[in-house]
Structure prediction request, 205 residues.
Amino acid sequence: MASAVATSPTEALVRYMDASRYVTYSTYCLLIYDHLLTFADELNLVWQSRSLNLVKVLFIFNRYAVPVMLAVDVAVLSGGLPSTTLRRMCKGWTIFDVVIELASLSSTTCITAMRVRNLWADRQDVDRFLNFVWVLQFLASVGMVMNYVAKNARTFSYEPNFNICFATVHQAWVIWVPAMVFHAIVFIAMITKVLSTPRREDCPL
Prediction:
């Protein structure tokens, strides 16, 4: 008869930290790899144009500010930064990181909304509806993030045993719900437009 193996809180924490590190390192490598694959397209489609508009600003922000922020996150998570540096920066950096993540999420949903609104350029009611939904999810996300920071900021601290920034966070997944709902609505709007657009018999979907 198999017996359950008791796991101490420290052992569980180490396993969670290792899993978090592996996921972070692998996804960051995929991000950089994607940047390298699409850099030629970026040169042709973004930097060749001298005009500056909202979409271009949002793209550049997500393209370069986010990887830099994530690079610092990787350094913090790896435990490779000096302990004196981590002690000073933990709380402030964690809050700043959350704010930047919110800005990144909001900017990507904004670009997505613009793209789908262009598909429905002939329908002002759809355009207004998508604008309303984006503003609604943005306000909901900001409110949830502010509530999250207010409730958990006191737990953002330096963990000397592992030389990392640490926080006790509960129910953090709900922060992503507004954006998930927004993307579901946008996806439905996009598919509806595709299916309602006339096309020739020899033209694939």
Observations:
- Residues 9-192 form one domain.
- The chain has six helices and two strands.
- Helices lie at 9-37, 39-47, 54-78, 83-119, 124-152, 177-196.
- The chain has one domain: 9-192.
